Amino acid sequence: MTRAILFDLFGTLVPGDTNAERDETSRRIAAVLGVDPTRFAAEVRASRRDRFTGHLGDIPETVRTLAERVGGNPTPAAVDSAVRQRLALTRRQLVPGPGVLDALDRLRGDGWRLALVTNCSAETAQLWRETEFVTRFELAVFSSTLGHAKPDPRAYLAAVVALNLPPASCAFVGDGASGELPGAVALGLPTVLAATPLADPDVDTADWAGPRITSLSELPALLADLVPDQAD
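That's the Haloacid dehalogenase sequence above. Prediction below.
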């Protein structure tokens, strides 16, 4: 098969949480670290790009750095507890949405090669092999490991090059967070908005004029025309 699909993760294959939910998680972790919860939640939001590109180090280093930025000096035990909370949260988030695994299995059964291209912090990369996704994807590109996050072209190209396919043969499917759709289009990837119930509710995709789906089950019919198989 000479065609592939590059999938976003959060808001596409697993539910996207809201800004309010993310802040609440940060406030709970702040209590463990002994820092001001409001300031810590704001710092976590502000550090999103640095966390997603791995610039803050591994999970314990990231937790300690963020706590210190808001005046904290957490003990090793407090950092360890916060890390366990972060991993537990991410583990709960990495559960496939309804119908997602069936849709992926159908695509693989039709011969599509599947790759993941996700913006994420270190927790996702660490836990990926525990998920039900791992056996279904040929490869996974994590921004925190790569050092580049969508819409940086290097994020998509890492998968395209590894698959050894031209961009026109690699569809990108995502919920539109972080400007990922225009970033994919700029590289010549056939691009589809996943406007499903899993999508991040805080993402505004009103200006997207390209193909869209409301369920991953719609992908086979849509992509059959959008990404011609060069082997046909």
